Amino acid sequence: MTFPRCPYCKEHFTRSRYRPDQKVCGARDCQRRRKADYHRRKIQNDSIYRVQCRESQQHWREQHPEYMRLYRQTRIPALPKTRPERPKNLVRLLQHAKNSVAIDLKAYSVSVFLVGPGEQVKNILANAKLILITGLSNDQESPTSL
The pTM is what? Predict the structure, then answer.
C-alpha cells in the first residue's frame, strides 16, 4: 500500500478513513497553508465570495473602531519625549579637534557625528573612543554604500 505525499511538507501520511480523498497531511502548518491557498483561490475566482469577505472586514472594523489605536499602543514602544543627553566629552572632543571635519547633524533625533578627513591630516582624533566613518570618497572603492 502506498501512502500519499503532502504537497506542503513532502512527508508521507495516512489518509483519514473519513476523508479517503484527503490530499494534505494533518499537521497544523500544512492545514493552515491548505486553508490559505483555498481562500486565495476562492477570492480570485468567485466575485460574490470576494465581496462577502470585504464586507465582513468592513463590518468588523466598524464594530471595533478603537482596535488599531489600542493595538499600536500595546505593540509599538513609546518614543522618548526628550532627546537623550549627548556625552559631553565626545562633543567637546569633536568641537576642539584640529585638522578634522566633524559635523553635528541636528536634524536627527539622535546625536550623529560625521567624522572624515577634509584634507590630508595626521593623527585625527587619536585618543577618541568612538569615531563614526560614513564611507569612502568617490575615487576609492566602497564595499557598501551607506
Answer: 0.45
Distance CA 75, CA 61 (A): 19
Helix residue ranges per DSSP H, 10-119 = 28-45, 47-63, 67-75, 88-96
Domain positions in the chain are 80-146
Mean pLDDT in residue range 135-140: 47
Three-state SS for 103? Answer: strand
Backbone angles phi, psi at 15, to 5 degrees: -70, 150
In angstroms, rounded to a whole number, what is the distance separating the alpha carbons of residues 110 and 92?
17
E strand residue ranges, 4-120: 101-104, 113-116
Distance between CA 115 and CA 125 in Å, rounded?
Answer: 9
User: Would the CA dihedral through 100, 105, 111, 112 be positive or negative?
Assistant: negative
